[in-house]
Please model this.
Amino acid sequence: MKQYLILCRSVTHAQRCARLLEGALIRAAVTKAPRELTSSGCGYALLLHAKLDEALRLLRKKEMSFGRVFERDGDGEYREIKP
Amino acid sequence: MIYFDSAATSFQKPPQVLKAYTETLRSAASPGRGAYRLAMRAAEAMLNAREEAAAFFRFSDPERVVLTMNATHALNLAIRSLAVPGAKAVISGFEHNSVLRPLYACGMEITTAGRRLFDPEELLGTLRSELPGAALAVFTHVSNAFGYILPVREIASLCREYGVPLIVDASQSAGVLELDCSTLQADFVAMPGHKSLLGVPGSGLLLCRGETKPLLFGGSGSDSIDRAMPAYLPERLEAGTQNAPAAAALAAGIRYIRRRGRDAIEAHERELCLHMAELLGGREELQLFVSSDAAMQSGVLSFRCRSRDCEEIARMLSQEEICVRSGLHCAPLAHECAGTLETGTVRMSFSPFNTHAEIEKAAGKLIKII
Model:
């Protein structure tokens, strides 16, 4: 199953984004960001399995900032997406 | 026992507050220190408190609602964010030491505007002449010693007109008086969680519109490699392990107030205050500090007795299981302005849980004492 990660600056911001998406019936879990994806140390991310485009559109519409976006396939490698 | 010291801290808490506190203590760990269930429950408690507070005070951004240890902590953060050593700070004559001491510690030159009790016109007149050249202004919404409601909206407008950043100390008003941050032009609003918001000790809030400077430095749960605190709120001002149970209790307290009605609580406390003033009034041995305009006084009543020391009265009331506060109430400037610095006052402060029967009983005991 595909995984998408949307990096967020903090747990507070990640939670707010997750609540916003939840209100639009987009499931997103708050998770720690993998260390390899964060240059500044610990960070948080939203983990989605579907509806990535819809989620990003909604976050932008509501002016909720977010960081880099990654896709992870079965091989376990993260690839950055430039949405 | 009759508890009339809610201006210090509210003692009677709604059951929902105690339940939220204990449930979070049992089921949550540390916010922002992991994504496992216990850590996320703690983070949820923190965010819930921010969102409840933002909605209650009509403050636009929950991420700029900083959770603090108390109002003193919140005021220190706000003052440190704006202070310029040697520059002028304008305050009212009714500020608490939680304003005075941080300003002194920051090396600011302090000027007061409004030194007359229950006289907003005098305050606004002197404020207009003191604001030019000031680096910041700090005004309490309500005097903790006398219950005097300051014209905070007009103060904010004047500060905006003169381009002076304003910190509002809402320690005695948050949860009781209307505080609409969508229209109040303040840069910071500081308040405790454990007074009229009915949370527990160890909780407070700072609503930040202005730029901030940290007071504590340490772990924030994110951007760990950076030697500086994060640039973003709330993490910028929340170093170290946060008090998630207190945050949950605070959210429950705010929800209780919303359900009961903030305006109903305001009216109830004012009625209790007026009732007490009426029962104690007209006695030569007592000097009551009461506004002739009821709308200018919150649920706080100060008085002193010509024949007995304030501390003695408080002690004798305590023997009758009536809890009041005596002395200077950590507000020596307010007492200097009211002419009570040498004696202090006895202060009775009321809560949503006090009753008129308690007022009558306490007044009767007090009259016997004096």
